[in-house]
Amino acid sequence: MRTAFALLGAALVITPAAAAPVTMQIHLTGAEEVPGPGDADGKGTASVTLDAAKPEVCYTLDVSGIDTATMAHIHKGAKGVAGPPVVTLDAPAEGASKGCAKADADVVAALLAKPADYYVNVHNASHPKGALRGQLGR
Fold it and tell me: What are the protein's UniProt keywords (predicted)?
C-alpha cells in the first residue's frame, strides 16, 4: 500500500501543470486583405484568448472606418493566403463585439501551435470577401 501511495505521489509531482491561457493582440487593416482590396480607410484590433483546456476562442473586436460589419471569422491561411473559416465570431456591427465562440479542440490546439497560419477577418456588404484582416501571432 505504501508503494502505491509513493508512486501516486511521484506521478502527481512530475505531471506538468496545465498551460496558461494565451492572449494575442492583432492589428486589422484593409491592406492585409487577400484577395484585396480590403477597405483602405478601415482599421481595427482583435484580441484572441485561447486555453488548451477549453473548446472555445474568446475574443474582442473593435473596428472603425468601415461600413457595417456583417460577419467575422478566424480563417486558416498564412500571411498573403486566403483560406477557409475555422471559427465564427460575432460581427462588430456597432463597431465592437466580444464573446467566446465554440471551437473544436483540434482547432484550438492548431491555433496555439501555429498562430501565424491563421487570421482574423471582418466582412461587410461592400467588401464581402473581407474589409479588414490581421494575422494571429504571439
Answer: Signal
